[in-house]
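Continuing the series of single-chain predictions for the mutant panel. This is the parent chain; the variants come on the following pages.
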Amino acid sequence: MDEGKRVESGISGRTSDTIVSILKRLPSIWLDGHRARKLASRLPPCLDNVPLPDADTIYSWIKGFCATPHRRPGTPEGHRGEQWVAERFRELGFPDVHVDPVPITVWTASKWSLSVEGKEMPSFFVVNTGFTGAGGVSAPLVYVGTGTARDFKRVDVAGKIVVADIPFPKMPTGVLMKLIHACYTFSDPNHELHLRSTQYLNFVRQNFIGGSTAEDAPANDVYWQSFKRGAVGICLILRDQPGNSNTHYGPYDGLMKPMPGLWIANEDGAQLKTLARSGNAARLTLEGSSEPGVMHNVWVVLPGRSDEVILVTSHHDSPFQGAVEDGTGVAQVLAQCRAWSQVPLEQRPKTLVFVVDAGHFYGSLGGHTFARQHKDIMARTRILLTVEHLGGKEVAAVVGGGYAETGRLALTVMFTTPDPLVLATVARALEKKPARTTASIPANFFGPAPISDACGYVIEAGVPVISWIGCPYYLLDQYDTLDKVDTTALVPIAETIAEMIKIQMAMK
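Parent structure:
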């Protein structure tokens, strides 16, 4: 897990730091993008047609895959998802389906609650935190703001239940993509992104990023700083999460933490802060189990005329129903698997390996493990193409809770290795099969590796990557349901993915 921890902790939590870093890199991004577009016109011709499934078929896979309330790593529901993927591979004509076990600790919450002066407050568990037993822990509340050193100097948290704000960085996506062109290539054929467009990165908790322990936690980690100062529990307010949702699943680093924690929605958090400032007593309860278990990577090989590999991946686990995260990704892998298996061998110059891996929500351990266990495949990999959360609808918050559709598709990015041929692949594919609101950005835009399920493969094997991923607001909460899938986008997305594979197939 050490390598995964470094990726997680490498994400910058401060918007200003990230934007400054981007501004410094703009000249090289512009130059590389310009060269890629010129090179794209000189790429060799590729296969004319790949028989992709229709939208109804792709959506039927999403619907069938998302039949359980969640697919958390190592749970019966997670195993059901793995089995479903293996069955679909067999239906597509692959008798030799590999199902590789990955040992983990299976953490399962069964009951949780927060009671303040006898009144219940809505809450949700913080995954992989400590259990209290049926009696819970009772103590005064104390508010520490965002948990800066100055915040902790003002209050004594020993023996108390800490209440803290968790902010998300807010990226000015419209300005970055449309004004200063902080991307190699930008595709927006329907003009859905405007200069005022912004995006909270709600997978980046600025003061509780994850990937650390008490010994190596950063100074701004409010969870670990509270624990080290003697707190007995913590309530974390999702200050910038739209929709007044408290069902946030993170940090999903796979690291077990000793102190019990609960998530509180932003609007409910305003009341909790008032109670904490008054020193009201509370009872925090988090019951469950933590025991050895296993999850599985599921994968197949489609041989080509050579041993060179195009590796196509997504992940099967999800904290909730996961229609977008990652029902859509799994369905797109299946779409490519079915399509390319119908292409004659003589038209497949390279071998395709399709992996639906485990444990994205366990520090991306599935990807790390696959790369470690199959070094021969990684050594032959010409390109890693990871597809996640594609075709999700953009939403806006509704006052009082929930989301409303905007009529647009959620922004997606392609984390792209700055290799000329990889960049040209993206430029050529987006020119021929334009994708809605999609930006190709450096693979290390936010950290040393893509902040996607590609990170394990990239860190372990250093393979070139195109990691196409969407980031709508509902990814980590219970609102990630089937109605969030834009079915009209499923085939166009599959066409763009197929185009990138065709280009890589044609390369010498």
